[in-house]
Amino acid sequence: MCGIAVAVDWEDAEASVRRLVRGLAHRGDVDDPIVSPRKDCAMGTRRLRIVDAERAVQPQASFDGRVLVSFNGEIYNHLELRRELEARGVKFRTESDTEVLASSLRVWGPQALERLSGMYAFVALDAANGEFLAARDPFGVKPLYLIQSGSGALFCSEMRPLLASAPGDVMLLPPGHLLTRKTVLRFAAPFGGPPRPRIDHDPKKLDRLLAAAVHSRLPPDLPCALMFSGGVDSTLIAHYARQIRPNLPGYFLGDDRAPDHRYAAAYAEATGFDLRRVAFDETADIGARIGAVVATVETFEPSVVRDASCTCLIAERIAQDGHRVALAGEGADELFAGYAPLEWAYDQGDAAGAFVRDQCLADMHRTNLQRLDRASMRFGLETREPFLDRAVAGYALGLGAADLVRGPDGAPQGKQPLRSLWALHPALPEAIRVRRKSPLHVGAGFDRSQKSSPWIDYAEEAISDADFAEGQKRFARFDLRSKEELLYLEKLAECFDPFRVPHLTARPRLRFPVAEKPSPVKERLADFLVEA
Protein backbone atom coordinates (compact mmCIF):
# COMPACT_ATOMS: atom_id res chain seq x y z
CA MET A 1 0.00 0.00 0.00
CA CYS A 2 1.45 3.31 -1.04
CA GLY A 3 0.96 6.72 -2.46
CA ILE A 4 2.18 7.00 -6.04
CA ALA A 5 3.10 9.96 -8.22
CA VAL A 6 3.98 9.68 -11.91
CA ALA A 7 4.64 12.28 -14.60
CA VAL A 8 4.52 11.32 -18.27
CA ASP A 9 5.58 13.84 -20.93
CA TRP A 10 5.44 16.55 -18.29
CA GLU A 11 7.72 19.56 -18.17
CA ASP A 12 9.88 19.61 -15.04
CA ALA A 13 8.67 16.05 -14.35
CA GLU A 14 11.05 15.15 -11.52
CA ALA A 15 10.34 18.31 -9.51
CA SER A 16 6.59 17.85 -10.01
CA VAL A 17 6.71 14.26 -8.77
CA ARG A 18 8.84 15.28 -5.81
CA ARG A 19 6.16 17.82 -4.78
CA LEU A 20 3.43 15.22 -5.12
CA VAL A 21 5.29 12.68 -3.00
CA ARG A 22 5.70 15.26 -0.24
CA GLY A 23 1.92 15.63 -0.24
CA LEU A 24 1.53 11.86 0.21
CA ALA A 25 3.84 11.51 3.23
CA HIS A 26 1.07 10.06 5.42
CA ARG A 27 0.47 7.13 3.03
CA GLY A 28 3.71 5.32 3.83
CA ASP A 29 6.81 5.15 5.97
CA VAL A 30 9.58 5.58 3.39
CA ASP A 31 10.24 7.64 0.25
CA ASP A 32 11.54 5.50 -2.58
CA PRO A 33 14.01 7.18 -4.96
CA ILE A 34 12.44 9.17 -7.77
CA VAL A 35 13.33 7.60 -11.11
CA SER A 36 13.36 9.36 -14.49
CA PRO A 37 13.50 6.59 -17.11
CA ARG A 38 12.91 9.01 -20.00
CA LYS A 39 13.01 12.72 -20.72
CA ASP A 40 10.03 14.50 -19.14
CA CYS A 41 9.02 11.35 -17.25
CA ALA A 42 9.39 10.61 -13.54
CA MET A 43 8.05 8.02 -11.09
CA GLY A 44 7.90 8.34 -7.29
CA THR A 45 6.38 6.43 -4.38
CA ARG A 46 5.71 7.00 -0.72
CA ARG A 47 5.78 3.34 0.26
CA LEU A 48 4.16 1.55 3.17
CA ARG A 49 6.49 -1.41 3.59
CA ILE A 50 4.53 -4.66 3.77
CA VAL A 51 5.53 -7.23 1.12
CA ASP A 52 9.33 -7.74 0.96
CA ALA A 53 9.77 -4.53 2.92
CA GLU A 54 13.45 -3.94 2.27
CA ARG A 55 13.81 -4.93 -1.40
CA ALA A 56 10.47 -3.92 -2.94
CA VAL A 57 11.68 -0.42 -3.79
CA GLN A 58 9.52 1.26 -6.44
CA PRO A 59 9.28 1.64 -9.30
CA GLN A 60 9.78 -2.08 -9.84
CA ALA A 61 11.03 -3.23 -13.24
CA SER A 62 10.07 -6.22 -15.34
CA PHE A 63 12.55 -9.06 -15.76
CA ASP A 64 14.18 -7.31 -18.75
CA GLY A 65 14.05 -3.82 -17.26
CA ARG A 66 11.76 -2.45 -19.94
CA VAL A 67 8.49 -1.98 -18.02
CA LEU A 68 8.57 0.06 -14.79
CA VAL A 69 5.61 0.15 -12.40
CA SER A 70 4.58 2.50 -9.61
CA PHE A 71 1.94 0.61 -7.68
CA ASN A 72 -0.55 1.23 -4.88
CA GLY A 73 -2.37 -1.78 -3.43
CA GLU A 74 -1.93 -5.51 -3.04
CA ILE A 75 -2.03 -8.41 -5.53
CA TYR A 76 -3.34 -11.30 -3.45
CA ASN A 77 -2.55 -13.97 -6.05
CA HIS A 78 0.98 -12.75 -6.76
CA LEU A 79 2.53 -16.05 -5.65
CA GLU A 80 0.46 -18.00 -8.17
CA LEU A 81 1.34 -15.52 -10.93
CA ARG A 82 5.01 -15.72 -9.93
CA ARG A 83 5.01 -19.51 -10.33
CA GLU A 84 3.33 -19.21 -13.73
CA LEU A 85 5.91 -16.68 -14.90
CA GLU A 86 8.80 -18.70 -13.52
CA ALA A 87 7.57 -21.66 -15.57
CA ARG A 88 8.03 -19.39 -18.59
CA GLY A 89 11.62 -18.69 -17.57
CA VAL A 90 11.13 -15.33 -15.84
CA LYS A 91 13.69 -14.63 -13.11
CA PHE A 92 12.80 -12.51 -10.09
CA ARG A 93 15.00 -10.30 -7.91
CA THR A 94 12.57 -9.70 -5.03
CA GLU A 95 9.49 -11.18 -3.37
CA SER A 96 7.48 -8.07 -4.29
CA ASP A 97 4.02 -8.29 -5.81
CA THR A 98 4.89 -5.13 -7.75
CA GLU A 99 7.71 -6.94 -9.54
CA VAL A 100 5.26 -9.73 -10.40
CA LEU A 101 2.91 -7.12 -11.85
CA ALA A 102 5.68 -5.52 -13.94
CA SER A 103 6.73 -8.85 -15.45
CA SER A 104 3.09 -9.89 -15.96
CA LEU A 105 2.52 -6.77 -18.03
CA ARG A 106 5.70 -7.44 -20.01
CA VAL A 107 4.66 -11.04 -20.76
CA TRP A 108 0.90 -10.71 -21.25
CA GLY A 109 0.42 -7.00 -21.91
CA PRO A 110 -2.92 -5.45 -20.86
CA GLN A 111 -4.43 -8.95 -20.73
CA ALA A 112 -2.47 -9.41 -17.51
CA LEU A 113 -5.19 -7.37 -15.79
CA GLU A 114 -7.63 -10.23 -16.27
CA ARG A 115 -5.37 -12.44 -14.13
CA LEU A 116 -5.08 -10.11 -11.15
CA SER A 117 -6.89 -10.68 -7.89
CA GLY A 118 -6.45 -7.72 -5.60
CA MET A 119 -6.89 -4.04 -4.96
CA TYR A 120 -4.71 -1.78 -7.06
CA ALA A 121 -4.03 1.44 -8.87
CA PHE A 122 -0.84 1.73 -10.87
CA VAL A 123 1.01 3.41 -13.72
CA ALA A 124 3.32 1.30 -15.89
CA LEU A 125 5.82 2.99 -18.22
CA ASP A 126 7.61 1.40 -21.15
CA ALA A 127 11.14 2.79 -20.86
CA ALA A 128 11.93 1.95 -24.49
CA ASN A 129 9.13 3.80 -26.28
CA GLY A 130 7.50 5.99 -23.63
CA GLU A 131 4.10 4.33 -23.81
CA PHE A 132 2.22 4.03 -20.52
CA LEU A 133 -0.65 2.05 -19.06
CA ALA A 134 -2.58 3.18 -15.98
CA ALA A 135 -5.20 0.94 -14.40
CA ARG A 136 -7.50 0.67 -11.41
CA ASP A 137 -9.08 -2.40 -9.80
CA PRO A 138 -12.68 -3.35 -10.71
CA PHE A 139 -14.28 -1.97 -7.54
CA GLY A 140 -12.05 1.07 -7.23
CA VAL A 141 -10.69 0.12 -3.82
CA LYS A 142 -7.53 2.09 -4.59
CA PRO A 143 -7.68 5.64 -6.02
CA LEU A 144 -5.97 7.15 -9.03
CA TYR A 145 -6.32 10.77 -10.17
CA LEU A 146 -4.70 12.73 -12.96
CA ILE A 147 -4.32 16.12 -14.58
CA GLN A 148 -3.72 16.23 -18.31
CA SER A 149 -1.87 18.87 -20.30
CA GLY A 150 -1.50 18.35 -24.02
CA SER A 151 -0.13 14.83 -24.49
CA GLY A 152 1.21 14.72 -20.94
CA ALA A 153 -0.33 13.49 -17.69
CA LEU A 154 0.41 13.85 -14.00
CA PHE A 155 -0.88 10.98 -11.83
CA CYS A 156 -1.36 10.86 -8.06
CA SER A 157 -3.11 8.80 -5.38
CA GLU A 158 -4.88 11.82 -3.87
CA MET A 159 -6.43 15.00 -5.18
CA ARG A 160 -4.97 17.68 -2.91
CA PRO A 161 -1.33 17.23 -3.97
CA LEU A 162 -2.34 17.35 -7.64
CA LEU A 163 -4.38 20.52 -7.22
CA ALA A 164 -1.50 22.17 -5.38
CA SER A 165 1.06 21.14 -7.99
CA ALA A 166 -0.43 21.88 -11.40
CA PRO A 167 -3.18 23.87 -13.14
CA GLY A 168 -6.15 22.17 -14.74
CA ASP A 169 -9.02 19.97 -13.65
CA VAL A 170 -8.49 16.77 -11.70
CA MET A 171 -10.01 13.66 -13.25
CA LEU A 172 -10.35 10.19 -11.81
CA LEU A 173 -9.71 6.94 -13.58
CA PRO A 174 -12.94 4.95 -13.14
CA PRO A 175 -12.84 1.52 -11.48
CA GLY A 176 -12.05 -1.38 -13.79
CA HIS A 177 -10.64 0.95 -16.47
CA LEU A 178 -7.26 1.27 -18.11
CA LEU A 179 -5.78 4.36 -19.71
CA THR A 180 -3.10 4.60 -22.41
CA ARG A 181 -2.02 7.41 -24.71
CA LYS A 182 -4.59 6.33 -27.26
CA THR A 183 -7.56 5.04 -25.31
CA VAL A 184 -9.46 4.64 -22.07
CA LEU A 185 -11.52 1.49 -21.80
CA ARG A 186 -13.14 -0.79 -19.27
CA PHE A 187 -11.34 -4.08 -18.81
CA ALA A 188 -13.49 -5.47 -15.97
CA ALA A 189 -17.13 -5.09 -15.01
CA PRO A 190 -17.92 -6.73 -11.65
CA PHE A 191 -21.54 -5.65 -11.94
CA GLY A 192 -24.02 -4.49 -14.55
CA GLY A 193 -23.98 -5.71 -18.13
CA PRO A 194 -25.86 -8.84 -19.21
CA PRO A 195 -27.74 -10.70 -16.46
CA ARG A 196 -25.57 -13.24 -14.67
CA PRO A 197 -26.61 -16.88 -14.52
CA ARG A 198 -28.72 -17.38 -11.41
CA ILE A 199 -27.33 -19.72 -8.77
CA ASP A 200 -28.86 -21.26 -5.66
CA HIS A 201 -27.26 -20.37 -2.36
CA ASP A 202 -24.96 -23.06 -0.98
CA PRO A 203 -23.79 -22.17 2.58
CA LYS A 204 -20.85 -24.56 2.44
CA LYS A 205 -19.58 -23.06 -0.81
CA LEU A 206 -19.90 -19.49 0.49
CA ASP A 207 -18.16 -20.58 3.70
CA ARG A 208 -15.19 -21.86 1.67
CA LEU A 209 -15.03 -18.75 -0.49
CA LEU A 210 -15.13 -16.35 2.45
CA ALA A 211 -12.58 -18.32 4.45
CA ALA A 212 -10.20 -18.29 1.48
CA ALA A 213 -10.75 -14.55 0.90
CA VAL A 214 -9.97 -13.71 4.53
CA HIS A 215 -6.99 -16.05 4.75
CA SER A 216 -5.45 -14.64 1.56
CA ARG A 217 -5.58 -11.14 3.02
CA LEU A 218 -3.68 -11.98 6.21
CA PRO A 219 -0.10 -10.74 5.77
CA PRO A 220 2.28 -13.68 6.28
CA ASP A 221 5.06 -11.71 7.98
CA LEU A 222 3.23 -8.95 9.85
CA PRO A 223 0.62 -8.71 12.62
CA CYS A 224 -2.91 -7.83 11.54
CA ALA A 225 -5.92 -6.19 13.21
CA LEU A 226 -9.65 -5.99 12.51
CA MET A 227 -12.07 -3.08 12.48
CA PHE A 228 -14.82 -4.72 14.54
CA SER A 229 -18.40 -3.58 15.18
CA GLY A 230 -20.08 -6.79 16.30
CA GLY A 231 -22.09 -6.86 13.08
CA VAL A 232 -22.62 -9.85 10.81
CA ASP A 233 -19.78 -8.84 8.47
CA SER A 234 -17.00 -8.13 10.95
CA THR A 235 -17.96 -11.14 13.07
CA LEU A 236 -17.51 -13.48 10.12
CA ILE A 237 -14.18 -11.90 9.23
CA ALA A 238 -13.03 -12.29 12.83
CA HIS A 239 -14.08 -15.94 12.83
CA TYR A 240 -12.21 -16.84 9.64
CA ALA A 241 -9.14 -14.73 10.45
CA ARG A 242 -8.77 -16.34 13.85
CA GLN A 243 -8.64 -19.77 12.25
CA ILE A 244 -5.14 -18.68 11.17
CA ARG A 245 -4.41 -15.88 13.67
CA PRO A 246 -6.20 -16.80 16.93
CA ASN A 247 -4.74 -13.77 18.73
CA LEU A 248 -5.82 -11.22 16.12
CA PRO A 249 -7.28 -8.16 17.94
CA GLY A 250 -10.47 -6.30 17.05
CA TYR A 251 -10.91 -2.56 17.49
CA PHE A 252 -14.34 -1.28 18.51
CA LEU A 253 -15.27 2.40 18.47
CA GLY A 254 -17.38 3.63 21.36
CA ASP A 255 -18.08 2.89 25.00
CA ASP A 256 -20.46 0.41 26.58
CA ARG A 257 -23.40 2.74 25.83
CA ALA A 258 -22.86 2.43 22.07
CA PRO A 259 -25.67 0.46 20.36
CA ASP A 260 -23.14 -1.95 18.82
CA HIS A 261 -21.28 -2.66 22.04
CA ARG A 262 -23.47 -5.43 23.41
CA TYR A 263 -22.99 -7.42 20.21
CA ALA A 264 -19.23 -6.91 20.12
CA ALA A 265 -18.97 -7.81 23.79
CA ALA A 266 -21.09 -10.94 23.27
CA TYR A 267 -18.70 -12.22 20.60
CA ALA A 268 -15.66 -11.43 22.75
CA GLU A 269 -17.14 -13.18 25.78
CA ALA A 270 -18.19 -16.25 23.79
CA THR A 271 -14.88 -16.72 21.96
CA GLY A 272 -12.15 -15.05 24.02
CA PHE A 273 -11.66 -12.38 21.35
CA ASP A 274 -9.15 -9.61 22.10
CA LEU A 275 -11.60 -6.67 21.90
CA ARG A 276 -10.00 -3.24 22.20
CA ARG A 277 -12.24 -0.22 22.67
CA VAL A 278 -11.43 3.12 21.06
CA ALA A 279 -12.93 6.14 22.81
CA PHE A 280 -14.32 9.31 21.29
CA ASP A 281 -12.54 12.52 22.24
CA GLU A 282 -15.32 14.34 24.04
CA THR A 283 -13.21 17.52 24.31
CA ALA A 284 -12.44 17.86 20.59
CA ASP A 285 -13.54 21.08 18.93
CA ILE A 286 -16.30 20.11 16.49
CA GLY A 287 -15.39 22.70 13.87
CA ALA A 288 -11.72 21.71 13.86
CA ARG A 289 -12.61 18.02 13.83
CA ILE A 290 -14.93 18.48 10.85
CA GLY A 291 -12.25 20.40 8.96
CA ALA A 292 -9.65 17.69 9.59
CA VAL A 293 -11.95 14.86 8.51
CA VAL A 294 -13.14 16.62 5.35
CA ALA A 295 -9.54 17.41 4.39
CA THR A 296 -8.64 13.75 4.91
CA VAL A 297 -11.52 12.16 3.01
CA GLU A 298 -11.58 14.70 0.12
CA THR A 299 -15.36 14.83 -0.19
CA PHE A 300 -18.35 16.64 1.28
CA GLU A 301 -20.91 13.83 1.14
CA PRO A 302 -22.44 13.77 4.67
CA SER A 303 -22.72 10.04 5.23
CA VAL A 304 -19.14 9.58 4.02
CA VAL A 305 -17.78 12.38 6.19
CA ARG A 306 -19.50 11.23 9.38
CA ASP A 307 -18.44 7.61 8.88
CA ALA A 308 -14.93 8.87 8.15
CA SER A 309 -14.83 10.60 11.52
CA CYS A 310 -15.24 7.14 13.07
CA THR A 311 -12.87 5.32 10.72
CA CYS A 312 -10.13 7.88 11.38
CA LEU A 313 -10.31 7.24 15.12
CA ILE A 314 -10.13 3.46 14.71
CA ALA A 315 -7.34 3.62 12.11
CA GLU A 316 -5.28 5.98 14.23
CA ARG A 317 -5.46 3.67 17.24
CA ILE A 318 -4.66 0.56 15.18
CA ALA A 319 -1.61 2.29 13.71
CA GLN A 320 -0.52 3.54 17.14
CA ASP A 321 -0.56 -0.06 18.35
CA GLY A 322 1.99 -0.94 15.67
CA HIS A 323 -0.15 -2.48 12.94
CA ARG A 324 0.32 -1.76 9.24
CA VAL A 325 -2.49 -4.02 8.01
CA ALA A 326 -6.14 -4.31 9.06
CA LEU A 327 -9.24 -6.11 7.76
CA ALA A 328 -12.65 -4.50 7.29
CA GLY A 329 -16.12 -5.54 6.15
CA GLU A 330 -16.69 -3.09 3.30
CA GLY A 331 -18.65 -4.50 0.39
CA ALA A 332 -20.82 -6.97 2.31
CA ASP A 333 -23.84 -4.64 2.49
CA GLU A 334 -23.69 -3.74 -1.20
CA LEU A 335 -23.23 -7.34 -2.37
CA PHE A 336 -25.55 -9.15 0.06
CA ALA A 337 -28.34 -6.54 0.40
CA GLY A 338 -27.50 -5.33 3.89
CA TYR A 339 -28.81 -1.78 3.48
CA ALA A 340 -32.49 -0.95 3.93
CA PRO A 341 -32.73 0.47 0.37
CA LEU A 342 -31.48 -2.86 -0.98
CA GLU A 343 -33.81 -4.85 1.24
CA TRP A 344 -36.70 -2.80 -0.08
CA ALA A 345 -35.55 -3.11 -3.70
CA TYR A 346 -35.03 -6.88 -3.55
CA ASP A 347 -38.39 -7.24 -1.84
CA GLN A 348 -39.79 -5.85 -5.10
CA GLY A 349 -38.00 -8.52 -7.13
CA ASP A 350 -34.71 -9.37 -8.82
CA ALA A 351 -34.83 -6.59 -11.42
CA ALA A 352 -35.50 -3.84 -8.87
CA GLY A 353 -32.87 -5.25 -6.55
CA ALA A 354 -30.19 -5.38 -9.24
CA PHE A 355 -31.09 -1.84 -10.34
CA VAL A 356 -30.38 -0.41 -6.88
CA ARG A 357 -27.50 -2.77 -6.11
CA ASP A 358 -25.59 -1.75 -9.24
CA GLN A 359 -25.88 1.90 -8.23
CA CYS A 360 -24.51 1.09 -4.77
CA LEU A 361 -21.58 -0.83 -6.23
CA ALA A 362 -20.88 1.84 -8.84
CA ASP A 363 -20.74 4.55 -6.15
CA MET A 364 -18.51 2.65 -3.71
CA HIS A 365 -15.26 4.06 -5.08
CA ARG A 366 -16.50 7.57 -4.18
CA THR A 367 -18.23 6.69 -0.91
CA ASN A 368 -17.27 3.82 1.40
CA LEU A 369 -14.07 2.85 -0.37
CA GLN A 370 -12.83 6.43 -0.66
CA ARG A 371 -13.56 6.91 3.04
CA LEU A 372 -11.74 3.74 4.00
CA ASP A 373 -8.71 4.48 1.83
CA ARG A 374 -8.23 8.07 3.01
CA ALA A 375 -9.06 7.48 6.68
CA SER A 376 -6.77 4.43 6.92
CA MET A 377 -3.91 5.78 4.84
CA ARG A 378 -3.98 9.05 6.76
CA PHE A 379 -2.28 7.00 9.47
CA GLY A 380 -0.21 4.68 7.27
CA LEU A 381 -2.60 1.73 7.62
CA GLU A 382 -3.45 -0.68 4.79
CA THR A 383 -7.03 -1.91 5.10
CA ARG A 384 -8.13 -5.00 3.18
CA GLU A 385 -11.72 -5.95 2.27
CA PRO A 386 -12.35 -9.72 2.00
CA PHE A 387 -15.95 -9.31 0.83
CA LEU A 388 -14.69 -7.65 -2.36
CA ASP A 389 -12.73 -10.75 -3.27
CA ARG A 390 -13.40 -11.60 -6.92
CA ALA A 391 -14.80 -15.07 -6.12
CA VAL A 392 -16.98 -13.84 -3.25
CA ALA A 393 -18.37 -10.96 -5.30
CA GLY A 394 -19.05 -13.24 -8.26
CA TYR A 395 -20.96 -15.60 -5.99
CA ALA A 396 -23.04 -12.80 -4.46
CA LEU A 397 -23.92 -11.32 -7.84
CA GLY A 398 -25.38 -14.66 -8.93
CA LEU A 399 -27.90 -14.79 -6.08
CA GLY A 400 -31.52 -13.76 -6.44
CA ALA A 401 -33.95 -11.96 -4.16
CA ALA A 402 -35.27 -15.16 -2.61
CA ASP A 403 -31.81 -16.05 -1.32
CA LEU A 404 -30.70 -12.53 -0.37
CA VAL A 405 -33.57 -11.04 1.63
CA ARG A 406 -36.17 -13.69 2.46
CA GLY A 407 -35.95 -14.47 6.17
CA PRO A 408 -37.34 -17.64 7.76
CA ASP A 409 -40.60 -15.87 8.55
CA GLY A 410 -40.94 -14.51 5.01
CA ALA A 411 -40.22 -10.92 6.07
CA PRO A 412 -37.52 -9.11 4.05
CA GLN A 413 -34.18 -8.95 5.82
CA GLY A 414 -30.91 -8.70 3.96
CA LYS A 415 -27.72 -10.74 4.19
CA GLN A 416 -29.53 -14.04 4.47
CA PRO A 417 -26.63 -15.94 2.82
CA LEU A 418 -24.23 -14.59 5.42
CA ARG A 419 -26.63 -15.27 8.28
CA SER A 420 -26.97 -18.86 7.08
CA LEU A 421 -23.30 -19.46 7.90
CA TRP A 422 -24.14 -19.43 11.62
CA ALA A 423 -25.49 -22.97 11.17
CA LEU A 424 -21.96 -24.05 10.21
CA HIS A 425 -20.36 -22.18 13.12
CA PRO A 426 -22.69 -22.53 16.12
CA ALA A 427 -20.22 -20.90 18.53
CA LEU A 428 -21.05 -17.51 16.98
CA PRO A 429 -23.61 -15.55 19.07
CA GLU A 430 -27.16 -15.87 17.80
CA ALA A 431 -27.89 -12.24 18.70
CA ILE A 432 -25.46 -11.12 15.99
CA ARG A 433 -27.01 -13.38 13.34
CA VAL A 434 -30.47 -11.84 13.70
CA ARG A 435 -29.51 -8.19 14.25
CA ARG A 436 -30.37 -5.38 11.85
CA LYS A 437 -27.82 -3.27 10.02
CA SER A 438 -26.59 -0.19 11.90
CA PRO A 439 -24.47 2.45 10.12
CA LEU A 440 -20.99 2.81 11.60
CA HIS A 441 -21.50 6.30 13.01
CA VAL A 442 -24.82 5.29 14.58
CA GLY A 443 -23.72 1.93 15.98
CA ALA A 444 -20.66 3.53 17.55
CA GLY A 445 -22.82 6.12 19.30
CA PHE A 446 -21.44 9.07 17.35
CA ASP A 447 -24.87 9.88 15.89
CA ARG A 448 -28.36 9.14 17.15
CA SER A 449 -29.52 8.25 13.63
CA GLN A 450 -28.74 9.12 10.03
CA LYS A 451 -30.81 12.28 10.44
CA SER A 452 -29.84 13.20 14.00
CA SER A 453 -26.21 14.07 14.65
CA PRO A 454 -24.16 16.59 16.62
CA TRP A 455 -22.50 17.56 13.35
CA ILE A 456 -25.90 18.26 11.78
CA ASP A 457 -26.76 20.34 14.84
CA TYR A 458 -23.48 22.22 14.49
CA ALA A 459 -24.22 23.00 10.84
CA GLU A 460 -27.70 24.26 11.70
CA GLU A 461 -26.27 26.61 14.30
CA ALA A 462 -23.27 27.75 12.24
CA ILE A 463 -25.13 28.50 8.99
CA SER A 464 -28.08 30.85 8.85
CA ASP A 465 -30.94 30.45 6.39
CA ALA A 466 -29.62 33.44 4.44
CA ASP A 467 -26.11 31.96 4.34
CA PHE A 468 -27.51 28.66 3.13
CA ALA A 469 -29.45 30.33 0.32
CA GLU A 470 -26.32 32.23 -0.73
CA GLY A 471 -24.23 29.05 -0.51
CA GLN A 472 -26.67 27.17 -2.73
CA LYS A 473 -26.22 29.85 -5.38
CA ARG A 474 -22.44 30.00 -5.03
CA PHE A 475 -22.13 26.22 -5.23
CA ALA A 476 -25.09 25.67 -7.58
CA ARG A 477 -23.24 22.95 -9.52
CA PHE A 478 -23.10 20.76 -6.42
CA ASP A 479 -26.88 20.59 -5.83
CA LEU A 480 -26.71 21.26 -2.08
CA ARG A 481 -29.82 20.24 -0.12
CA SER A 482 -28.80 20.74 3.50
CA LYS A 483 -26.74 23.03 5.67
CA GLU A 484 -24.60 20.05 6.60
CA GLU A 485 -23.61 19.60 2.94
CA LEU A 486 -22.78 23.29 2.66
CA LEU A 487 -20.68 23.18 5.84
CA TYR A 488 -18.60 20.28 4.56
CA LEU A 489 -18.23 21.79 1.09
CA GLU A 490 -17.02 25.06 2.58
CA LYS A 491 -14.48 23.12 4.65
CA LEU A 492 -13.38 21.30 1.50
CA ALA A 493 -13.02 24.62 -0.33
CA GLU A 494 -10.51 25.66 2.34
CA CYS A 495 -8.33 22.74 1.17
CA PHE A 496 -8.69 23.09 -2.60
CA ASP A 497 -10.90 24.56 -5.31
CA PRO A 498 -13.80 22.07 -5.67
CA PHE A 499 -14.74 23.57 -9.04
CA ARG A 500 -11.53 22.00 -10.38
CA VAL A 501 -12.84 18.52 -9.49
CA PRO A 502 -15.76 17.92 -11.89
CA HIS A 503 -16.71 14.49 -10.53
CA LEU A 504 -17.69 16.08 -7.19
CA THR A 505 -20.79 17.51 -8.88
CA ALA A 506 -22.03 14.01 -9.80
CA ARG A 507 -23.64 13.26 -6.46
CA PRO A 508 -23.89 9.58 -5.39
CA ARG A 509 -27.66 9.53 -4.83
CA LEU A 510 -29.75 6.42 -5.29
CA ARG A 511 -32.67 6.18 -7.68
CA PHE A 512 -35.47 3.70 -7.08
CA PRO A 513 -37.82 1.93 -9.48
CA VAL A 514 -41.55 2.35 -9.10
CA ALA A 515 -42.79 0.08 -6.32
CA GLU A 516 -44.68 -2.95 -7.54
CA LYS A 517 -46.01 -3.88 -4.10
CA PRO A 518 -46.08 -2.55 -0.53
CA SER A 519 -43.10 -3.50 1.61
CA PRO A 520 -42.61 -3.53 5.41
CA VAL A 521 -39.08 -2.23 4.85
CA LYS A 522 -40.19 1.04 3.26
CA GLU A 523 -40.64 2.99 6.48
CA ARG A 524 -36.96 2.43 7.35
CA LEU A 525 -35.76 4.11 4.16
CA ALA A 526 -36.25 7.53 5.75
CA ASP A 527 -33.28 6.80 8.01
CA PHE A 528 -30.92 6.50 5.06
CA LEU A 529 -29.36 9.32 3.11
CA VAL A 530 -30.70 8.33 -0.29
CA GLU A 531 -32.57 10.07 -3.05
CA ALA A 532 -35.78 8.53 -4.34
In short:
This protein has 532 residues and is α+β, with helices and mostly antiparallel strands. The chain is built from 21 helices and 17 strands. The chain folds into 2 domains: 2-186, Aminohydrolase, N-terminal nucleophile (Ntn) domain (Glutamine Phosphoribosylpyrophosphate, subunit 1, domain 1, 4-Layer Sandwich); 203-527, HUPs (Rossmann fold, 3-Layer(aba) Sandwich), CATH 3.40.50.
What does this structure look like?
- With 532 residues, the chain is of the alpha+beta class.
- Helices cover 38% and strands 14% of the residues.
- The longest helix is centred in the middle third of the chain and has 19 residues, at 302-320.
- Mean pLDDT is 93; it is low at 528-532.
Structural class of the secondary elements? alpha+beta
CATH architecture classification name of the largest domain: 3-Layer(aba) Sandwich
Q: Gyration radius, to the nearest Å?
A: 23 Å
Multimeric state:
single chain
What are the main properties of this structure?
6-stranded antiparallel sheet, 21 helices, Glutamine Phosphoribosylpyrophosphate, subunit 1, domain 1, 2 domains, 532 residues, Rossmann fold, 17 strands, alpha+beta, disordered C terminus
Write the layout of secondary structure elements.
Blueprint: E1 2-8, H1 13-22, E2 30-31, E3 42-47, E4 60-61, E5 67-75, H2 78-87, H3 97-108, E6 118-126, E7 132-136, E8 145-149, E9 152-156, H4 159-165, E10 171-172, E11 177-179, E12 184-186, H5 203-216, E13 225-227, H6 232-244, E14 249-253, H7 261-271, E15 274-278, H8 286-297, H9 302-320, E16 325-327, H10 332-335, H11 340-348, H12 350-363, H13 368-377, E17 382-384, H14 390-397, H15 401-405, H16 416-419, H17 430-434, H18 440-443, H19 454-462, H20 465-474, H21 483-493
Parallel strand pairs: 13-14, 13-16, 14-15, 16-17
Antiparallel strand pairs: 1-3, 1-9, 2-3, 4-5, 5-6, 6-7, 7-11, 8-9, 8-10, 11-12
Helix pairs in contact: 2-3, 5-6, 8-9, 8-21, 9-13, 11-12, 19-21
